[in-house]
Amino acid sequence: MKVEKLTTLDQEECAYALTCVDEVQKSGTAAKEYHTFAKRLPAMIVTCGLGQSLAFLFSQTKSGDSVGKTMLLEHISKWLQEKRGIYSPGKMILYPLMEGSLSSYI
After folding, report:
1. What is the pTM of this model?
2. How is 18-47 classified by DSSP, letter by letter?
3. Is residue 53, in this structure, part of any structural domain at all?
């Protein structure tokens, strides 16, 4: 008899975060920028909201030296769209946020 291992949401988040950190560390120069924005983002989300914070992060990815910011936006998008299934995958995360209902946002 095979026993299925059950994981909590916290364990899934932790495992995903660890894979993201490993990816960032392998990128080299992007690690410092990623770290800086990852530390600032929670306060920004509380102050401005998720949509505005991700829009600001997206606006920062337009410069040529924004590898860390781009990686952070991709990691957050992947978690919300693919791993958790909160927003539909395939579109850039800002579109499902703008088009979604209030119940999906909360």
Report:
1. 0.77
2. HHHHHHHHHHSTHHHHHHHHHHHHHHHHHH
3. yes
